[in-house]
Amino acid sequence: MIKLSPKLMQKIAWGFTWAAGIISVLILVLIIGYVLAKGLPVISLEFLLTSPEGGLSGEGGIFSCIVATLWLIAITMAILIPLGIGAAIYLAEYAPDSKFTRLIRYSVDLLAGVPSIVFGLFGFAVFVMALHLSYSILAGALTLVCLLLPFLVRSAEEAIRTVPQEQREAALSLGATRWQTIVHVIMPAALPGIITGIILCVGGAVAESACLYVTMGGSAAMPTSLLSGGRTLAVHVFYLAMETNALDKALATGAVLIILIFIINLSTRWLSQRLQAKMSGGT
Amino acid sequence: MNPKIQTKELDFHYGKVQALKKVTLDIKEHQVTALIGPSGCGKSTFLRTLNRMNDVIPNARLEGAVFLDGLNIYAPEVDVVEVRKRVGMVFQQPNPFPKSIYENVIFGPRMLGLNHRTNLNDVVEKSLRASGLWDEVKDNLGKSGMALSGGQQQRLCIARALAIEPEIILMDEPCSSLDPISTLRIEELMQELKGKYTIVIVTHNMQQAARASDWTGFFLLGEMVEYGPTSEIFSRPKDKRTEDYITGRFG
Amino acid sequence: MTRESFDRHLQQLQDEVLVLGSMVDKAIDRSMRALKGRDMEMARQVVAGDRKINQKRLDIEERCVELIISQQPVASDLRIIVAVLNIIIDLERIGDHAEGTAKIALMIGDEPPLKPLIDLPRMAEKAGDMLRRSLVAFINRDVASAREISAEDDEIDNLYDQVYRELLVFMMEDPRTITRATRLIWVAHNLERSADRVTNICERVVFTVTGKMEEIGASKY
């Protein structure tokens, strides 16, 4: 083996990490840049406000897809967030460290690794068929909740666990109950971590296609209720790419998807800052 | 001098490990009592039994009794919140909440249901004055408690503890992360506060115990080996183990 | 954890006390020999030697201060240093008394002797003996022996009484002896005081061991 001087070794290591960093950023910029560059020119108000009309050339716009996507996100989050945070608080603050809780954690970790299409099949069997929800936004949302819950619970639990023990003790020593401690001290401190988890969940929900295809169906019609089916933007991208020759529209839809994620991301962060300020009281 | 706190044959177990062995001790009112001993000797565990801070530890078990003015704080009918209202605590690391100075001080009173703004303002001023921080922060009460220096943070934590008007203040190595000047300020403060409160401090700094306390208890392997007036302990300890420890010939 | 370097310093400190003690012991002996043998040269040496004793005391005191600053002694360590600080004062004063005796020897010069000196040398011998044993007791932390030595102060007191009465008789019989007799009374007084200082040292021995300050063997003078 060739002996390298520590100094030279350091230079090589430096160079390698630098190159790795640059390459990963480059890949990201390339993809987003490509999608935006190709997609953005196609986007027009008309494209955004008309629903898909089908056909080999992918007639029409994506209006119903945007609506279906927003519906789906709203319903999914409305169920997912309380459930996820509640479970995380239980696991981090109340549950004793027993075999049972370790089992819960282990299965949660395991679920997080299961491919989404398996969840899709489960959702199809249980929500669509057994519960007679048929292809619907609700069935899709419930499936997404199952898919994302393990991840949200784990990330929220981690966020709660990283709140220093000293903060808990400070609150308890001042005569706060455990619940007061959770509400007034732990949640404000854990909020940034939890919000990050939620944002990643929203991203996951928006990006998911396979498991939604089998639970929401692919109807491009404008959804009218929770029980109507729908086609999300991601599913639409899939459809456009595979069933039509309108690659430009697929890319445009992709661009809309990216922008949507970006907007949701920003607004969630803004909301969390407001919330945190309010919960911790004062500046 | 009346005993403010009395422990009777106090045993404490973490799982199978016994952390305290039959500790019986009278802590005198309006005095500073220092608990010294090597790491892991049980002094912090003992301190935390006095405001039931150990309650939250899983698999912990306590036997014996802790009397606060004659009331056993481990009696089943006693509300732990009531105990902590009477026995405040300051920790090893300054641990202000990531909130404003003002919000830090009123946290306790607010949790206990005090909401009237003028009253809260009074509490803030009184507590910060008592902890000697008022003049340094009075124009900046909206500033984050985290933005203060270490010594100021610790005095903020003391103010926060004082805000619930406790009778006893427990301090768990309150100066271990502070510079010498801040340390002396806290020690001075203890002398001022003991007129109104009873103070129990755990310290690994024997000079601090000698400087700042009236009574000293020496713990070793979960036992309270010797307890007496600080000047006695440091000039003529009775127990060989105390002598070995304080003269640095321990182990 | 042990404190080897501190222990070594404490040991050296006590060795220094012994050195000072032997200097003082020698001064008592030589001042009496100078007085008895009319040895002016030896008397002058004792007077000169007192400055060395004083210097030694200051050196030891400084060592104590250094140890207090650097080691922040408590408990038995603190008591040893406090004892040393007190003992060296007593030793220095005993040295001063010996110097006083030597100066009287110089004053008397070659005046005709008033009487043969018998009791005074016995006092000096006893005082020196007590001094040596008190320092040994200090080194050995020997409380019993310290108490014993203290009690022996009575013998010195008795000798002092005897010398005093004897000299009083001389002065009453022949007023011309008053000057010479008074000088000898001073010598006796010096020795009596020295022995008292030894009892102080004995008290420090008790303090070092028990931590209690107590007056032992209260002298009649």
What does this protein structure show overall?
The complex is a heterotrimer of chains A (283), B (251) and C (221). Chain A has eleven helices and two strands, in the order ααββααααααααα. Chain A has 283 residues and is an all-alpha fold. Chain A has one domain: Orthogonal Bundle (MetI-like fold). Chain A has a two-stranded antiparallel sheet. Chain A starts with 5 loop residues before the first helix and ends with a helix. With 251 residues, chain B is α/β, with parallel strands linked by helices. Chain B has a domain at 3-95 and 168-246: P-loop containing nucleotide triphosphate hydrolases (Rossmann fold, 3-Layer(aba) Sandwich). In chain B, the strands form two sheets. A six-stranded mixed beta sheet of chain B has the order 6-7-8-3-9-10, with helices on both faces. Chain B has a four-stranded antiparallel beta sheet with strand order 2-1-4-5, covered by helices on one side. In chain B, helix 3 crosses helix 4 (117-130), helix 3 (101-111) runs parallel beside helix 6 (150-162) and helix 4 crosses helix 6 (150-162). The radius of gyration of chain B is 18 Å and the shape is globular. The mean pLDDT of chain B is 92. Chain C is an all-alpha fold and 221 residues long. Chain C has one domain (4-210): Methane Monooxygenase Hydroxylase, Chain G, domain 1. Chain C has seven helices and no strands. In chain C, helix 4 runs antiparallel to helix 6 (153-173) and helix 4 (119-140) packs parallel to helix 7. Chain C starts with a helix and ends in an 11-residue tail after the last helix. Chain A binds chain B through residues 96-97, 164, 166-167, 169-177, 180, 184-185, 188-189, 280-283, and chain B through 51, 53, 56, 58, 81, 84-85, 88-89, 91, 93, 95-100, 102-103, 107-108, 111-112, 142-144, 157, 160-161, 163-164.
